[in-house]
Amino acid sequence: MQQREEKHLEASLESLITQVAHVKNALHSFIFKLENEYERLTWPSVLDNFALLSGQLNTINKLLKNEKTPSFRNQLIIPLLLSQDRDDDLAKVTEQRVPVFSHEIVPDYLRTKPDPEVEEQEKLLSIEAARIGPEVAQKQIQTLNKLCSNLLEKLSNPRDERDAESAALRQNKCWFNPADTSALVGAVAFGKGLSKCPKNKYIPCAPSLMPGGPPTLQQVTMGAAGQQGPLGGPPQQQGQPGRTSLPVAIRQGRGFAGTFQAVIRV
Amino acid sequence: MEAPPVTVMPVTGGTINMMEYLLQGSVLDQALESLLHRLRGLCDNMEPSTFTDHELVYLLKGQQGNPFILRARRSLSQPAAPWHLRYLGQPEVGDKSRHALVRNCVDVAASHSLPEFLNEMGFRMDHEFVANGHIFRKGAMKVVVSKLSRILVPGNTDNTERLSLSYLVELSVLAPAGQDTVSEDMRSFAEQLKPLVHLEKIDPSKQRH
């Protein structure tokens, strides 16, 4: 009987040690990635690492809950010998993490109770729980269960339903105002909504300007087309083949190109 | 009075007749950041450049017909840069299925004496405004997101008041006449900006009423 129990104990210890070794390796590679490949790391791969760790912890939990696992609580570990000397075998087994089995490591590695602060908090929580009474506690438990199930339901619903809702929400948000569009376009196109300038600067364009016009105008026309026409010719000649036609003051002759370049040369 | 439409004019040499293909839309202030992010992603990778321009629109009223319009623009953020003079023709009413507004466009640079020159020529300033915002490029396409402000005291560009709570978004391409693939490209680019902003062909003459 005892031998069987011992065998159980040993087997479960072995499997626990392997599981913990898996967790250790996963943590090791994750830390390495975080420290060295920091720039190339993407959030999905970080999530993958966390998922791996969580899965491994789950396995360990299941292992401990397993019926075949004897209760480890009944076992005692008593350090038989503590020494300040370096123990090479221990160092090798623990990959240089525990070189000396001394008094300093005992409280950390052979701890059975949680940290003092954690213990305090647990005590407070259990006092609080005892204070509120069983009915209130039951109601709180029920509310929590309801919230969780609602959330699970929403998450497990088909994706299409969720997308339809969010699309409808997005459409309600307006990014532009058509009235504003027409106002702005009107302003740019012909000054709708912009104050018009006073008319006092208006000089009527008429042939009266032409006779005795400044000599530079003549230069313009010569430069433009090499054609001469009498200054003060007929004001507007529409339907002339030619590109843009400015009346009177600039345009002379017919069919020249590059009017604007000519204008600017003045 | 306007230049006769491109299609009936013989080519008499000189510069190539450039057409401006235009799509316009607007976006509310609160959506501006998202739009800028999207444009930064979609457009060519360059330093996002902002601009502040003062545009004056000059009219020359002839004996008959519509007045002749010239637009003079200067940069308030770079005062030493030359003025920019632009002529925009009437939108071409050819193909209804064409996705963008197409109009004849002539652009030249001018010296700082442009306003006095235009006044001497007989032009009268009709209105002016200040536009500031961001400009993005994607290949030949240019996207301008600008906030328009009206000038309260003529000539004083510091004292301005916003026209509306939206930014004007314009997608434009300057191309020689007759290239209809341009409007297809513009339309597919505009699709990518939905639903933030709906860029569409807005006929200014219809806006007048």
TrEMBL record, chain A:
Task: Alphabetically list the UniProt keywords.
Answer: Activator, Nucleus, Transcription, Transcription regulation
Q: Which GO terms describe its biological process?
A: regulation of transcription by RNA polymerase II
Where in or outside the cell? Nucleus
Where is it found, in Gene Ontology cellular component terms? core mediator complex; mediator complex
Q: What domain of life does the UniProt record list for this protein's source?
A: Eukaryota
Chain spans, region Disordered? 221-244
Q: Fetch the Gene3D superfamilies from UniProt.
A: 1.20.58.1710
Q: What is its main location?
A: nucleus
Q: Name one GO molecular function term.
A: RNA polymerase II cis-regulatory region sequence-specific DNA binding
Its quaternary structure?
Answer: Component of the Mediator complex.
Alphabetical list of PANTHER family matching this protein: MEDIATOR OF RNA POLYMERASE II TRANSCRIPTION SUBUNIT 8
Function, please?
Component of the Mediator complex, a coactivator involved in the regulated transcription of nearly all RNA polymerase II-dependent genes. Mediator functions as a bridge to convey information from gene-specific regulatory proteins to the basal RNA polymerase II transcription machinery. Mediator is recruited to promoters by direct interactions with regulatory proteins and serves as a scaffold for the assembly of a functional preinitiation complex with RNA polymerase II and the general transcription factors.
For this chain, the family text in UniProt reads: Belongs to the Mediator complex subunit 8 family.
Q: What is this protein called?
A: Mediator of RNA polymerase II transcription subunit 8
Q: Organism classification, top ranks?
A: Eukaryota, Metazoa, Chordata, Craniata, Vertebrata
From TrEMBL, chain B:
Gene Ontology MF terms in the entry: transcription coregulator activity
Q: Which domain of life is it from?
A: Eukaryota
Q: Which InterPro entries match?
A: Mediator_Med18
GO BP terms: namely: regulation of transcription by RNA polymerase II; termination of RNA polymerase II transcription
Where is it chiefly localized? nucleus
Q: Which GO terms describe its cellular component?
A: core mediator complex; mediator complex
Q: Which UniProt keywords apply?
A: Activator, Nucleus, Transcription, Transcription regulation
Q: Name one Pfam family in it.
A: Med18
- In which compartments does the protein localize? Nucleus
**Function, please?**
Component of the Mediator complex, a coactivator involved in the regulated transcription of nearly all RNA polymerase II-dependent genes. Mediator functions as a bridge to convey information from gene-specific regulatory proteins to the basal RNA polymerase II transcription machinery. Mediator is recruited to promoters by direct interactions with regulatory proteins and serves as a scaffold for the assembly of a functional preinitiation complex with RNA polymerase II and the general transcription factors.
Q: What's the subunit arrangement here?
A: Component of the Mediator complex.
Family membership, please give it: Belongs to the Mediator complex subunit 18 family.
Return the protein name. Mediator of RNA polymerase II transcription subunit 18
